[in-house]
Amino acid sequence: MNDVTDVKLDERWKTALKDEFEAPYMAALKSFLLEEKRLGKAIFPKGSEYFRALDLTPLGSVKVVILGQDPYHGEGQAHGLCFSVREGVRVPPSLVNIYKEMNTDLGIPPARHGNLENWARQGVLLLNSVLTVEQARAASHQGKGWEKFTDAVIARVNEQEQPAVFILWGAYAQRKAAFVDATKHLVLKAPHPSPLSAHNGFFGGRYFSKANAFLEEHGIAPVNWALG
């Protein structure tokens, strides 16, 4: 990843993040991932989906940012978007609670699947802080460089002229995006939707209607949150 030309990525992000891809920490991260694979470890998501969130939501079209922490570490779950799983995979508990809140907020029935690509294609950047994980080992790739890279992603969105909505569920996401300019962007903070914390203030936050109201106030098309 030390040569930006080797990375298959939306050109707008590639240009904006050129310095990151050429930085020593990304070369070290690439070496780490290659060594893990050489040792026969299963890494999720697959390599072509490391930057899936950026591919589906190009810089300049980001309307909403939702931050996660790590990819799911179970077989067949992670596909490059935070909180999202492929169709046919059981909807994770945190996403079940997100769907419950969406139903309360907008009257949208919970989707029968957990694939959030439709959100991403509309400008919802579903960004994990760490973009890879070893199978069955949660948080196994923390502290390897991904956090610095995704800090840069958030910074680029923060710098864009168009205002955006940052939905920060949980203390980790709130710390990570603490530098976001709340005078330009809408920053919504709440407990994480996980079953362990959702009843401590996540429910009732009306994040989806608040996000759309802000977008419409600024002449930006709202997000159709329905997933079918």
Automatic annotation (TrEMBL):
Its main location: cytoplasm. Keywords: Cytoplasm, DNA damage, DNA repair, Hydrolase. It catalyses: Hydrolyzes single-stranded DNA or mismatched double-stranded DNA and polynucleotides, releasing free uracil. PROSITE patterns: U_DNA_GLYCOSYLASE (PS00130). The active site is at 70 (proton acceptor). CDD domains: UDG-F1-like. It is an enzyme of class 3 (hydrolase). Residues 55-215 form the Uracil-DNA glycosylase-like domain. NCBIfam families: PRK05254.1-1 (NF003588), PRK05254.1-2 (NF003589), PRK05254.1-4 (NF003591), PRK05254.1-5 (NF003592), ung (TIGR00628). This is Uracil-DNA glycosylase.
